[in-house]
Each structure stands twice: as C-alpha cells, then as structure tokens.
Amino acid sequence: MASATGPRIRRLLIANRGEIAARVIRTCTRLGIESVLAASDADLESLPARLADRVVRLGPANAAQSYLDPAAVVRAAQAVDADAVHPGYGFLSENPSLARACATAGIVFVGPTPESLEAVGDKLTARSHALAAGLPVVPGGRPRIWRRRERWRPRWAIRCW
C-alpha cells in the first residue's frame, strides 16, 4: 500500500496510552503496519502493551518525563527504527516541538506540520489566520481588558434602573 503523499510506513511508534493507543494499534494491524507502543513504566502491562507488536519503555510513570518529553519520544522511535510517530490525542499531539523533533530526526510525524500546529495552537492566532484566508468566523475574539478601577460583577448583580 504505497502512499501518494510520502513513504510507506512499515513500523509505527505510538506515543500514547489507553483507548487511543489501542485504536491506533488495531488500525496498524488492519493495515499491516508493525505497531510499537512507547509506554511509561505505569503502562508497560496495559491492554495496549498486550495488543502492540512490540513495546518500548518511554520513561517513568510521570507523564512529564515520558509522554510529554519530545526528546524521549524521538529516542524511543530511533531505538526501534520506527518510520513514523503517532502521538494519539492530547499529550504532544498539538505541540509543534514533537513534530519538529521528528522532522529533524528524519521520522514521519503522523499529524500536521509544525507550522500548522503553531498557526492553530492559539485560538486568537488561528482566528487571525482564518480571517486572512477569507474564512467566515464567529464575531468577537478580542478579550475584554478590565481597568483596575472597574470591578467585575456577574450579570445578575447589575441593576438597570
């Protein structure tokens, strides 16, 4: 199954856990792609670890030192000679640092480009890009800046007479 947009993925590192990882692993199985689960110490015996073709230790149970560490994810991918990294949802999936680290290491990042992630990572920035592209957006988007002497009060506390 060759791809028109890039090289065929033969070995995919899944940098996530739980149901998300299990779904990606099942999809890999259907597509004939070898699945490698990058798991923290807390997830080495999880259902996704049993479903995956291989498991590689990502780091300690603390997510900041495993799933949220782009360098650890890239090291794990390199250790198993993975063609690509799938971040799943949450963790680093919307963080351009993992996408950039994968590109630097010559590993395919299954997700948007770092530039796309930067463009839409902040809602106001994403809104300005949508406006520049001529897309319709919901009115608003500028946060109200309160002056020091103003005191916020809930709507029901404001009297109108």
Describe this structure in words.
The protein is an alpha/beta fold. It has a domain at 11-113: Rossmann fold (3-Layer(aba) Sandwich). 35% of the residues lie in helices and 14% in strands. The protein is built from 6 helices and 5 strands. Strands 3-2-1-4-5 form a 5-stranded parallel beta sheet. Strand 2 (34-40), helix 2 and strand 3 form a beta-alpha-beta unit. The longest helix has 14 residues, at 18-31. The protein is elongated, with a radius of gyration of 21 Å.
Describe what is shown at a glance.
This protein is an alpha/beta fold and 161 residues long.
Number of contiguous helices: 6
Question: What percentage of the residues does DSSP assign to strands (E)?
Answer: 5-15%
Rounded to an integer in angstroms, the radius of gyration calculated over CA atoms is: 21 Å
Largest sheet: 5 strands, parallel
